[in-house]
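Action item from last week, closing it out:
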Amino acid sequence: MEFRTRIPIKEEQPKIDYDSRLLLLGSCFVENIGARLEYFKIRKLQNPFGILFHPQAIETFLERVVLGYHYSEEDVFFYNERWHCFEAHSSLSHPDREGILDTLNQKLEQTRDFVKQMSHVVITLGTAWNYTNLDTGLSVANCHKLPQKNFEKKLSSIASLNQNLEKISKHIGQLNSEAELIFTISPIRHLRDGFVENQLSKSNLISALHSAEKGTYFPSYEIMMDELRDYRFYAEDMLHPSPVAIDYIWKRFTETWFSEEAMITLAEVDNIQKGLAHRPFNPESEAHRNFLKKLRLLKENLLKKHPYLKF
């Protein structure tokens, strides 16, 4: 007897392997998947401008990358003793104006170089609620804790989101027409917007993605809502997925997208990582010396196949 529903997901092509390079953009769920890729030593570039929740923010970022944009003093502002940019997350904010401008421009250049070599793009959409700066009339990626009265909050329509997705695909294609585009929706619940408002937001994102002409959809949101339909799969805040839930969604992602050879290498890397994390009771013992010897051989054998790996 089956006590849960399981989301059917077909295997996708082209597969991700250890020759792949992944660009990760979007909401904080990207950070969870990115941490797994980091652990397993998959080459990736993760949220160069920090967490971006709305498709408009991702579109703007990619447009800047394609155009070779150069940020200047007009693009940043000073608030609460730090310089900020409305197009980037507060993790890039800096106490020095030149510091934030250097960071923004370096990130754009780094992304442009990476996009030309990447094999896959994973974009996680977080919300359809958009904030517009009333002074400039422009959409912002982050409000940087400025007063709410400075912004207009509005739910983006499906048609508007479709335009964002079309331009995202276009910008990526301008630099790399061969890259595989993977979309997903963050399973994190944005209850600051309200319970009904969160559902409206997710619904618009889902509708827009399923009518998009390009890209493949991975159902991380649906896995969380249907396969893991229990509060034991949430963190203490009851909003974010728990580590167990993230591990499960990662497992479903690898089953869908990773090649058989890559799955074997994932297991080898996992063994090495666990070995490196091991803390012996007696570092001077013969048993521990033998353990280190075996670990060294595992690393050497793996590095023969994948010389770029670093442990």
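Closing note: The radius of gyration is 21 Å.
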